[in-house]
Design a protein that fits this description.
The protein is globular and about 65 Å long. Helix 3 packs parallel to helix 4 and helix 8 crosses helix 13. It is 42% helix and 16% strand. The protein contains 15 helices and 14 strands. It has two domains: 223 residues, Rossmann fold; 184 residues, Glycogen Phosphorylase B (Rossmann fold). The protein has an eight-stranded mixed sheet with strand order 3-4-2-1-5-6-7-8, with helices on both faces. Strand 7, helix 7 and strand 8 form a beta-alpha-beta unit. The chain is of the alpha/beta class.
């Protein structure tokens, strides 16, 4: 138990049993002896409907690794844009109203927001921060409203301007903004109309779950090893942003020319399109394994020869480092990137693999062929370099210790005011 135990409130729309990095953070702080409460919604990501196991026994999901989990009702995200918008609105509204009531007798030293989309998840945290007189830390993992424009969810200039004003309202009322990428600083500062001191804007990247660092992985039951085939694995959300048409095109270019199989793990809005495309094109070198629990991923990674990250290009995505990049680096496997910006810089700077321009299917086929025909020693060296870069820049232990100290420092400053 720490001498000065902290009472921490975590506000997040997404939480266990959904596979999210915030689960890892909560587990770590709870294991250190801090009192952690999570204010969240009903688990429905990414399928779009509330998990059946939760519906059958919601009481089993009120505690996680020793921390209290407080859930508020929300509308499931469904599979249509209007449902997604209502899902966002319902969470921040209910968490702002029902959350303070459910937690009315609690006191907190720090409030932490897991701010993946939507940024409105920070609003209930700001409400709680004002009521509890506690510092609010917002971990900015997505850039709004730019992301909405980039993925085409919102195109109307006036509406984007309104969202921008809301973002400015949130940023200016947050005590600390933790930014997952160096590329975020300039963008975030544009929305900070107040004089934001440098100690309020903090670089705080993501990390990989512990299992990805385990060098003694068991064999995966989901993928049979084949030493005669070069295996490229993609894991994660299958959405429009991942540019799957370009990945399929690269697979078509290499089909029948070289022994490469493309293994895609995950699901999302493009899942059905991808399944139909693979079937219609007769791509036997593309295996779709569907969605599987996070604990299955390290063994799958260990069975691959290279790990693929792809993302469409625009001014927003170029500033972002997808969370899977840290997991790829930690696994010690070579990385293939069809991506621009910060993520491409990390792949190049770490020496962890090869990258090409976003959306360039021909270039992806070329670097895949280059890596497939490279010597084992060269690929092993790439994986080792990536692993070393991960430990130096994204170590979970170091990052979470740093966050704990930030909480303590903020609590001390609040007490001195």
């Amino acid at each position: 138990m720490p001498e000065n135990k902290l009472n921490i409130l975590v506000v997040t729309q997404y939480f266990w049993p959904e596979n999210m990095r915030i689960n890892d953070l909560v587990q770590d702080f709870s294991a250190k002896g801090h009192a952690v409460t999570v204010l969240t919604g009903l688990p429905n990501y990414p399928e779009g409907k509330v998990y059946e196991q939760y519906r059958q026994a919601p009481e089993k999901f009120s505690e996680f690794s020793g921390c209290r989990v407080v859930r508020v009702p929300l509308l499931p995200r469904g599979n249509r844009s209007i449902n997604l918008i209502l899902n966002y609105l319902s969470f921040f509204t209910m968490a702002s109203v029902v959350g303070p009531w459910k937690l009315r007798h609690e006191k907190y030293d720090a409030i932490f927001v897991y701010a993946v989309s939507p940024i409105m998840a920070a609003i209930p945290a700001l409400v709680m921060g004002r009521l509890k007189k506690a510092p609010v830390f917002v971990w900015v993992l997505d850039l709004w409203p730019e992301t909405l424009r980039a993925v085409g969810v919102v195109k109307h200039a006036l509406l984007l301007k309104c969202v921008g004003r809301m973002v400015s309202w949130i940023y200016n009322r947050s005590d600390y903004l933790l930014l997952q990428s160096h590329g975020f600083f300039e963008n975030v500062k544009r929305y900070c109309t107040k004089n934001i001191s440098s100690n309020r804007l903090i670089y705080f990247p993501s990390w990989a779950e512990d299992d990805f660092s385990d060098c003694n992985q068991r064999a995966s039951t989901l993928l049979q090893p084949d030493p005669n085939v070069f295996t490229v694995l993609f894991a994660g959300n299958l959405g429009e942003a991942q540019d799957l048409p370009a990945v399929v095109e690269a697979a078509q270019m290499l089909s029948g020319k070289v022994a490469v199989r493309w293994v895609i793990v995950g699901d999302g809005r493009m899942s059905q399109w991808l399944a139909d495309k693979v079937l219609s094109c007769g791509l036997g070198n593309v295996l779709l394994l569907g969605r599987h629990p996070l604990e299955e991923m390290p063994a799958l990674f260990a069975g691959a020869d290279a790990l693929l990250v792809s993302l469409k290009t625009n001014d927003v995505f170029e500033k972002t480092i997808p969370g899977k990049v840290q997991a790829y680096l930690a696994s010690g496997k070579p990385i293939l990137g069809m991506i621009n910006g910060e993520a491409a810089r990390v792949i190049e700077e770490s020496g962890a693999g090869l990258s090409c321009s976003s959306g360039d299917a021909a270039a992806l086929a070329q670097i895949t062929l280059q890596l497939a025909t490279a010597g084992t020693e060269q690929r092993t060296a790439m994986g080792k370099s990536g692993r070393e870069y991960y430990l130096e820049n994204y170590s979970k232990v170091s990052l979470l210790n740093r966050l704990e100290q930030l909480f303590r420092d903020a609590t001390l400053r609040k007490g001195q005011q």
